[in-house]
Amino acid sequence: MEKRGKIRYIFSFVTLTVLLGALIFWNINAGSVSVSLGEVFSILFQKGGDETARNIIWSIRLPRILAALILGGALSVSGFLLQTFFNNPIAGPFVLGISSGAKLTVALTMIFLLGKGLTAGSAVMIMAAFVGSLISMGFVLLVSRKVRNMSMLVICGVMIGYICSAVTDFVVTFADDSNIINLHNWSQGSFSGMNWDNVALMAVVVFVALGLAFFLSKPMSAYQLGEAYARNMGVNISRFRVELILLSSVLSACVTAFAGPISFVGIAVPQLMKSLLKTAKPILVIPACFLGGAVFCLFCDLIARTVFAPTELSISSVTAVFGAPVVIYVMINRKRG
Q: Transmembrane segments in this chain: where (predicted)?
């Protein structure tokens, strides 16, 4: 059985890596300006090719692809951390209202700065989103003290998300026209408009948080077996919970700050990865979630920008189409169990 498990793990990671590589090249090739595979290799590895195609790939497509890869992985890992924390398979940043809280604070920050004639830098956006994530998470934690039923907790999270979205819409209603346009484009969710500075900053934030989450693999494994067991294994439960909350909030805030609210990735991908690996061990699921989230978001972004080109769909709409059936399946199976 142990040998079979190792073969499954190796096969799963190799498959995810191959899919990721294939989608990266497919995304580079696809678009309003088609670039052949030979040209792609020439531009990437030999610094040759047509100058227009080279500018499109290096200035537009590669930053967008890397953003989808990094942020998709971050959102998936954030979802896995929340599912571990609440011991609920449908807990995620979008469902629990954390993404909506981040959206609200980012919207308020954007309106305030744009009203003063200033622009919000990436670091400011991340900090604003992080504050909003923590506020929403704080409300969810307060509710969790009163409500022990996990289904009710998820419903309360959804209600918090609706409240944050309603306040955001109310604020946008009284904003200037130019501010409304900027907010509307951002709030729909999109990986477009990324540049290399954005990619560098999100990579630092996400990979630092990912490394810290990876170091929490052992406490998470113990926590999955129950609080009493984890406490007997020497895990400081209070500190461990704070660390999980902070890491999941940082990851989801980074995604919201750069790409807007993106639905269902944080719920669907961790479930798919656990089904693929046939295990919930964090030391395996965390890297698998990152790769799976990257593959999922690259695939959805490819559909969003090519199916109805030149019209581009919001990434959140596409992720919902593919992610929602997974959530429904998980809920039905959980009900049967």
A: 7-28, 65-82, 94-114, 120-143, 150-175, 195-216, 244-270, 282-304, 313-332
